[in-house]
Design goal:
The complex is a heterodimer. Chain A is mainly alpha-helical. Chain A has a single domain, classed as 3 helical TM bundles of succinate and fumarate reductases. Chain A has seven helices and no strands. In chain A, helix 4 packs across helix 6. Chain A is globular. The chains are: A mainly alpha, B alpha+beta. Bound molecules: iron/sulfur cluster and FE2/S2 (inorganic) cluster. Iron/sulfur cluster binds next to helix 4 and helix 5 of chain B.
Chain lengths: 221, 257
């Protein structure tokens, strides 16, 4: 069997995956923006305004489905491509991989899988609660994300897990960001170095931003 | 110099291969890797054993016939050279050297270290012809080509089709090779007429032959003896996307979107 599952060429699959990935990257910024409201010391008032907006604005509601689709497409194509890539080398090398290459690019499926597991946990903790599939913790309303987050971060184990996960997210993003541009054919002697720098900064700042919240909850509150 | 060699031995395409450990002695540090194997094969034959089969031809780094995955790197531990140009002084006396064939579904082993790289020829064939006028020799400057384009095209055309990019890639992807071939024509006015058809057909063939998909690891570029840049891959992605988006509903080329 060739590399033509679903009748799409390898490059088309990658382009769609890259577009979905860039969409997820832009979503992360919005998500982080709202999460950072958790840090304002007002008992969650600011944060809940953000949540309120995200759960009621009709445009955001449409985007919710686009977002779910984006995740599904990115993950599905990623897995298909990885399986085909494993099949492309049926006999492995005895001495493997001393070629110089960007380190994180070797482990995209692994960091991706870790992020996926987190995503499942995250959905069970928040999204499915909102949808009413999972019941909220005792005495917490099903849209009271502030209480849910506070309860979760109060659990040291979860908070540490969350922080570790953000590190892996950073690894994934570090390669992903510039790789998406390369796949889309957006490569230029002048702009590519800039894209790479932005990607590196993004992949450090965004996970750090997310991780700062449990850190504040543990050490300051 | 003396070395311990761990070499992949496989009788034929069907047979199950295995690593065999040998000793080779009396190697000059200025001999090439292939010359070392020649001396070693002599020693094997004297002992009445089958020599190790490996690909080679020009032995001056221009034909792309030699291969070998040496200690985890295609064309061995030096940068930007083919195996025939790799000197034994790059190793330390007494080193153990593991020698494997290129590993890819699209490059089946024929015997020992020799693989079948016809897949590359098929991709080139799929690319097809370019339209040129026959007749007298055209005037040198009749077609204007910006110097920068001519240079980039020439850089891409330096690809010798050795397959080290496929061998190095964790996905066994042929994108660097195909991108080099697509690029050197796409950059020139002479290649423009068939550019859209060419890139679609070559990518479709590459997929069909079972090469993996590029995940932009950059291993190919690091190992390419001709230092072909992955900028060419971006160019091919661009060409491909443009060709597909602009193509007519009725298909002129095999292969899906
Ligand atoms: S791109 Fe480089 S490594 Fe790949 S076939 Fe051409 S010369 Fe060999
Ligand atoms: S034998 Fe021709 S390139 Fe090595």
């Amino acid at each position: 069997m060739g590399n033509k599952l679903f009748f799409y060429s390898s490059i088309t699959k990658k382009i769609v995956m890259a577009l979905a990935g860039l969409f997820l990257i832009s979503f992360l910024v919005v998500h982080l923006g709202i999460n950072l409201l958790l840090l304002s010391d007002d008992g969650g008032a600011a944060f809940m305004v953000g949540v309120e907006f995200m759960t009621t604005n009709p445009l955001v509601k449409i985007m919710e489905y686009v977002l779910l689709g984006g995740f599904a497409i990115h993950i599905l194509i990623g897995v298909i491509i990885q399986i085909q890539n494993w099949m492309a080398r049926p006999v492995r090398y005895k001495v493997e991989g001393y070629s110089h290459l960007s380190f994180f690019s070797k482990y995209m499926i692994h960091t991706g899988a870790i992020i996926f597991i987190f995503l499942c946990i995250h959905f069970t903790n928040f999204y499915f609660v909102k949808l009413g599939i999972v019941s909220p913790p005792e005495g917490v309303g099903k849209e009271d994300f502030y209480q849910m987050a506070t309860l979760l971060f109060a659990d040291r184990f979860y908070a540490i897990l969350y922080i570790v996960l953000m590190i892996f997210l950073g690894f994934h993003l570090h390669h992903a960001f510039q790789s998406a541009f390369q796949t889309l054919g957006l490569n230029h002697t002048k702009y590519t170095p800039f894209i790479k720098t932005v990607g590196t900064i993004y992949s450090i700042l965004v996970p750090l931003g997310f991780a700062s919240i449990p850190l504040v909850f543990i050490f300051i509150r | 110099m003396d070395f311990t060699l761990k070499i992949w031995r496989q009788k034929n395409a069907k047979a199950k291969g295995k690593f065999v450990t040998y000793k080779v002695t009396g190697i000059s540090e200025s001999s090439s890797f292939l010359e070392m194997l020649d001396v070693f094969n002599d020693q094997l034959v004297t002992k009445g054993e089958d020599p190790v089969v490996f690909d080679h031809d020009c032995r001056e780094g221009i034909c792309g016939t030699c291969s070998l995955y040496i200690n985890g790197r295609p064309h061995g531990p030096d940068d930007a050279v083919t195996t025939c140009q790799l000197h034994m002084r790059k190793f330390k006396d007494g080193d153990t050297i593991v020698i494997e064939p290129w590993r890819s579904k699209a490059f089946p082993v024929i015997r020992d270290l020799m693989v079948d790289r016809q897949a590359f020829d098929k991709i080139i064939q799929a690319g097809g012809f370019i339209s040129v006028n026959t007749g007298g020799i055209p005037d040198a400057n009749a077609i204007l080509i910006p110097k920068a384009d001519a240079d980039s095209s020439m850089d891409a055309a330096a690809c010798i089709g050795c397959g080290a990019c496929v061998a190095a890639c964790k996905n066994a992807s042929a994108m660097l090779f195909v991108a080099a071939k697509v690029s050197h024509l796409a950059l020139l006015p002479q290649g423009k007429a068939e550019a859209s058809r060419r890139v679609q057909a070559m990518v479709a063939k590459m997929d069909e032959l079972g090469f993996g998909s590029c995940t932009n690891t950059g291993a190919c570029e690091a190992e390419c003896p001709k230092q072909i840049s992955i900028d060419n891959i971006a160019r091919m992605n661009r060409e491909f996307l443009g060709a597909k988006m602009g193509s007519q509903k009725k298909k002129v080329v095999a292969g899906g979107f």
